[in-house]
Amino acid sequence: MEITAPTPKIPTPTWEEFKDLQEWKTHHQERTDGGKISEAAESLFEKIENFPGGWLAVSSTEKVFNWARKSSIWPVTFGLACCAIEMMATFASRFDVERFGMVTWASPRHSDLMIVSGTVTIKMAPMLKRIYDQMPDPKWCISMGSCANSGGPFRHGYHVVKGVDRVVPVDVYVPGCPPTPESLMYGILKLQEQVAEFQKTGRRQRLAPPDQ
Asked: What is the pTM of this model?
């Protein structure tokens, strides 16, 4: 009696049962026809010419500089009170604000953003104004926390400034006591929108300050 080896039968793999593949089919994004250039590049370049072997982009230096100002805001490094702890947490590894192109800088002469994080006392106000005046134009300011916005729980104290907008002009107010890193990141995104609007019109959109 002849004995033959059995022929193995390999079942057809059912890839649809894998969750990763299901998610890939649901969320997979494909480029549109001719989508070799991103939307950011189209907004940056005034004219894009395609030719065999590559493409040619034409833009103005002022447009490139304005795009760099929006995408690489450098805040000056300093903190005033407990809100500074939340600001430091925002710039730490967990939230990674550097993906917005932001790098904290220790010199006001190389910075274009001041984040006022905490209580501004009358004694500290002249030094804060001096740092703001040393920053080159165009410069921006974010008021972070209730103390910086309006004095917070120390509003009725004799030693506290009732809002940093009485010392320097403020572009974005971030509420909270203290505000979370997510709140500060949202304020940074709103500031980037103002910077983009400033690039187009050359005029700032000052927000209404809180009730004094």
From this structure: 0.65
